[in-house]
Design brief:
Helix content: 10-25%
Radius of gyration: 15 Å
Largest sheet: 6 strands, mixed
Oligomer: single chain
Order of helices and strands: EEEHEEEHEE
Number of helices: 2
Number of strands: 8
Length: 144
């Protein structure tokens, strides 16, 4: 599984011009599911997302995680993260999970996240518009 995380001051996701999820301080999590992913990998990735120290402490060092700053998650499915871009000028999505498996693991991830932290989300497979104020900017690609 892949998570592109962005430290945000504010982020929202809309479908058909209607806001379906928004957070203030926290992490925007763009979540990609690959063929061999399972619930164990989803658990590993969630643990890493929640523990990753990307927020500044009182000395200005990135030493705090999203929970330590009372932040939230905005989780958005992003199948294009599984793209293979090594050859040619068109991405291949052969590494991506089937839509059924991707939806199952996306739902699993967001439910597990909501048990531990305030979590908002997009709508799986919808045409979404994501807006954010990236804080820093700080962006990391996590893969398990």
């Amino acid at each position: 599984m892949i998570a592109l995380i962005q430290r945000v001051k504010h982020a929202s996701v809309s479908v058909n011009e209607r806001c379906v999820g928004q957070i203030d301080t926290g992490l925007l999590v763009l979540l990609g599911v690959e063929k061999n992913d399972d619930e164990h990998r989803a658990d590993q990735l969630l643990k890493k997302v929640l523990a990753y120290r990307v927020f500044s402490d009182e000395a200005g060092k990135m030493n705090l995680n999203v929970q330590q700053v009372s932040g939230a998650l905005l989780v958005v499915s992003q199948f294009t993260l599984a793209a293979d871009t090594q050859k040619g000028l068109r991405p291949s999505f052969s590494n991506g999970a089937s839509p059924e498996m991707a939806e199952k693991l996306y739902d699993y991830f967001r439910v597990k996240a909501s048990e531990q932290i305030q979590t908002q989300c997009g709508i799986f497979a919808a045409d979404m518009q994501v807006s954010l104020t990236n804080d820093g900017p700080v962006t990391f690609w996590l893969h398990v």
